[in-house]
User: Fold this.
Amino acid sequence: MSLLFRVRSGLLQARSRIEPGVRRALFGDRPTWQRRPNVLPWFDRPDAMAQAERGPHADLLTKWVRDGYVVVDDVVDRADVDAMIGTLDGLWDAPTPVPHLELLSLREERGAPFRTVPHAEVLTWDAARRERVRQASDWRIHGFHYVNDAARRIFRSATLRRTASLLFGRRARPIAAINFMTGSQQDLHQDMAVFHIWPQNWLMGAWIACEDIAPHAGPLVFHPGSHRAPFFPGFTEYPQSNLRTVDEATAHAYQRWVDEYGAQYPRHEFLGRKGQVLFWHGMLIHGGAAIGRPGTTRKSMVIHYSVRGADRGREVRGPFRW
Assistant:
């Protein structure tokens, strides 16, 4: 497993070194998004509802156009979900560390600062400290599919991809994944404000319930219809400018803006059953509810999908806020 990770990491690093030079040789310093028109997906065009109503899968697609999300069943292998969660649950007392794995948002006690800790370091702690940190942390893992077979099968799932492709109207590609073990308690936001996507809106998330979600577990919160909100005017050079690259004042202005827009739409909580998947539009305003009962789990996996060539993250210039 570690060999596969090293090979993949080496290829990505080589690509990141080579691609900028090739682009400069061919196009100078002009980024690719300035050379390609902003052609929105079919579902964001004026005739989207008419297209959805007259085509196959009309119920699914009209809801997608109208509400900016759909919930589907039977598109994820429950055996893989169980295997993945079994490994995640066992990380805190594993016999050996998982190479290259980091646990995010760990803290010593409630209210303490968050930090990212390598799995190998976690296993050096005594049992009492591990349990204390685990109970105090809303921990998560990015890119677990790089080091775990079951997570990788879910990430690459042809069934999940077919649904994403149906919604996009063209072939979808998974580009990122996060595993949450508790509620995220995230502020309201739009994923387009975090990713660097051009043409705009070729982005969706798939939130996979890895257990039955309880109301007190800090469920996913979303505002149906909010994907129609205008793009935040403070991101004046998007995709160069978004929450990762703007200054703190602009980030705070975005938070006020998205909170105000979210309040104009109904608020829903996704109390998903194990195996259900909520697909949402990259502009849908969403976040995480407060955890009503500390220590309650909310096990989930989020996969983000785009289309070939739309993720411009490698061209974006820093400094970055994370």
